[in-house]
Amino acid sequence: IIMPYYSKGDLIRYISNNFYNINWVSKLINLKNIANGLINIHNLDIIHRDLHSGNIFFENPIYPHIGDLGISKSATESTDNNENYGIIPYMAPEIFQGRKYTKASDIYSFGMIMWELMTGRRPFWDRNHDTYLIIDISDGLRPPIVTYAPEGFIELMIECWDSNPDKRPT
């Protein structure tokens, strides 16, 4: 897969270099554009399976691009080989339980991206990404709600990372 070069880097760099200068309007525009990109991927019946801030790229500060579709698969593909892909804090709890990646798994990851853009920190930045974190996430651990956000933002974020994939927004 050949991807274009994005001179502004990824979402991690965007947040770390600009966090205190990114107002809520810009955050919401970015999240809307990331969501639209994910909708486009899902409308093609593709599951990203590795959605995180390192795979969202910028050429322009309000036009993020979802990249690194290298491990994405068709939503209709019947096997996952029970392999886990991704960065633990962004992985949906059902994946750790051996269930298939679904569009709802990507929505969980989007919820973690919402949290990251809200707080300026990567989810579970202060924890080792190990079996203990996997167990805690499977048991319902989510990052703390620590900051003010526009009405409806926190509620949507919590819906995105619901333990039950059937309750996540589509």
UniProtKB/TrEMBL annotation:
Key words of the record: ATP-binding, Kinase, Nucleotide-binding, Transferase
Family matches, as InterPro entries: Kinase-like_dom_sf, Prot_kinase_dom, Ser-Thr/Tyr_kinase_cat_dom, Ser/Thr_Kinases-Pseudokinases
Pfam families: PK_Tyr_Ser-Thr (PF07714)
Entries under PROSITE patterns matching the protein: PROTEIN_KINASE_DOM
Domain of life where this protein originates: Eukaryota
Span of domain Protein kinase: 1-170
GO terms for MF: ATP binding; protein serine/threonine kinase activity
Official protein name in the record: Kinase-like protein
Upper classification of the organism: Eukaryota, Fungi, Fungi incertae sedis, Mucoromycota, Glomeromycotina
